[in-house]
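SEQUENCE-TO-STRUCTURE ENTRY
===========================
What this section holds: a protein sequence and its matching fold, both as plain text.
Tokens: labelled as protein backbone structure tokens, with as many entries as the chain has residues.
Question of interest: how does this chain fold, as expressed in backbone structure tokens?
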Amino acid sequence: MKREFLSLVSIFLSMFVAGIAAARPASAPPLSVYGRLPGFERAALSPSGERVAIIGVLDTKRLLIVVDKDAKMIFSTPLDDMKIRSLNWGGNDRILIYKSDTVSLGAGFSTDKTELASVFVIPLDGSKAWSIFQGKDDISGGVRQFFGVNERDGKWYGYFSGITLDRDTGGERFLKSTNPVPYEVDLQTQAVRKIGLRAGDGIFRSWIIGAGGTVAASLDYQSKSGDWQLRGSAAAKINSGNTKLGGIDLVGLGNAAGTIIYSQTDDEDGETRWFEQPLAGGSAKEILADTYVERPFFDDRSRQLIGYSIVGDTPSYRFFDARRQKIMDATQRAFPGLAVNLVDGNESFDRLLVQTEGGDDPQSWWLVDIKTGAAAPIGQSYAVQSAQVATTRLVHYVAADGKKIAGVLTLPPGTIAKSLPVVVFPHGGPAARDTVGFDWWAQAFSAQGYAVLQPNFRGSTGYGAEFRRAGYGEWGRKMQTDISDGLAYLAKEGIVDPSRACIMGASYGGYAALAGVTLQQGIYRCAVSVAGIGDVAKMARTDQAQSGHDPTLRRALAQEIGSGRDLAAISPIRFADKVTVPVMLIHGKDDTVVRYEQSRDMAGALRRAGKAVEFVTLDGEDHYLSRGDTRLAMLEAAVRFIRTHNPPGAASGQAAGSATAAAGAR
């Protein structure tokens, strides 16, 4: 396959690509390039492959745009600051936008606010957009789950679940249960059809929707006991078991006809295994043993599993059909040295939408045409020239107890990797990982002259169950020293100056940043926590209260982070008096994952202890930094703070640590 440009590109696409990659000096781009939402944010390919839906910024306006196979724009509509979670097609002539909003709740709920989702259907024929369950007074709370779309008899249907109200004897509606009910929605007429039943109290139910628009299988999980039951389309039990930690989930229809796939995580060894279960009953068999699946791919019509991507440092793909595998292999070969992320494909799998990153690529988007053997560029995520992209590579080091750790190192463009100032940037989760690619936070700081280390400390995903479980009970302990051991390694290699190190992170990474200057001392000269956890005990109490004191969550939290006095011992707020360096706290007011009061309370504790602290509130922002203006405000504040307390130029003489301190502070 050759990678080449289409000869006919519309004025719109020329503006989209040229505006992003416009020539400019190789000096650092403005922070707005990284901080605002990407110029090319999302894209999806229609089932026919003839149209591409794009969410991006054109002339400062955030738009949904649809272009045809000749790159001609056929539709556009403004999106403003809508918090979009996914972009999908509902056939070839309508778009589905899945979005969420933070809403306040009244009395009687276990939390004061939550994130509610809704799905908008946007017809391309000019008719009025509408939302799923619009005008359905018996269905409340927006869309709870989205199960995808399917075509039947020339019409397209979407599958969603929602909270269904009951009626009393007088016909008045009332909320009996927040357990959802699955529905089929006609995407042409808006007609709604119930296709499943609501679970009873204390039971969490999930569904697999078959090609005919009926429930192929359902899974019931009893949180109190840990018992689960798998039922077929006729509601007959076909399998059952027990998992106290809730590690049971439906994946989808199997590759073999008449089967479904479910995943189960073992309570003891932490391994997640996939099982193929005949819908007619009988024994389930394990499939894809020793394979860590990152994302399954399903056929648009049959809804059966056709392939999957594998967790790794770079993306890899396996398809059951030899033709699809050949196509994917050829697509990856067309971009040597780059990570190729398969975003979407048409029904016949001869037109693919891919995103590339790595090397000097600021996340490029391509439309791959298998028939012509050409890959057409349709945009870049960030307005950064190749020469301005910081280089990234994997580094490997050994923690103090012998555990092998990998991390991503990002180095400033055009600099010698010697005695650089460094920002240590642990990821959130902590069940997540960083990979080599274009990370906008890491790139923004590297553009300022900093090396950036993103360590995949124990407890990270992608390195096997044993490595994941090695993080249990190690918040603020070995998970924390894995991070500083990475700094010590880079210092020993001469790449960074350990006296010029700051630590910054978000969510769990924000916790790690705070732990790095409370539970540890003498390593970092400043810390920035974005939506971080200062009081682990309070976090656990809040999470349990918001879940309605769910027993499974209580057991899982106890296993992963501990309970009681153990949580106080790893809470940075209890050690505010130990801080010797400036701290910045940044938090969105609408965060429903890590509550705003975590940073508010931490700021208060630091001030009472007489410590230097800045607290930045992001009004209207959630946990995920979903809005461009507040995302940029976060980045500008963090860069200003770190530049002030850890200048990227020559060392100021204020040594906050050393390679010895980084290795030994445990």
User: Anything to note?
Assistant: The two ends are 53 Å apart (CA to CA). Residues 222 and 549 are 14 Å apart (CA to CA).
